[in-house]
Amino acid sequence: MIAAVFLLYVIVEIAALVIVGNAIGVAWTVLLFLAGSLVGLILMRSQWRRVMDGFRKATRGEGSPSLAVADGALVAAGSALMFVPGLVTSVLGLLLLSPPTRWALRPLAVLLAGKRAAAFAAGGDAFAGTVGYAARMHGNGEVIDGEIIVETPETTEYVASNGKELVLEGEILDTDTPTRSRGPQY
Question: How many angstroms from the chain centroid is the CA of residue 38?
């Protein structure tokens, strides 16, 4: 599959070079390639700054995190395409680096990322199920709020962080009789 994609890439790039070279000449084709690379480098620098500003705004709650991530993914793809040699990849890279094109492609990027995240979450849930089984095997999984108190020899009083005296409440369970039997006991 990778070999077929690479072969297709080579065929498309050679065809584009031949077509553009015949239409405008070899010297202008080389100049077009160099100019595209220079514009791409300038765009990469400015757009990465814009993406980082979007990330900063999203962390401060001033912008949408999904849009910032989508912009970052599109700029990353455009930057990667700019480093791949060829006219077609340079044009695609320039398109992904230009803000109007990113604005148009952003919903698609968010949609694709959402599907990818859903697949990742499904895998994560499958793993969490095994962890949950281990938790159920050794206990009921209840969360008990508590506070760690260090007892020092100088004090016999237990005081919470809010300054009030602590009172422990609860019931004593008989530990000799099992309360539930779910799986092997270790």
Answer: 29
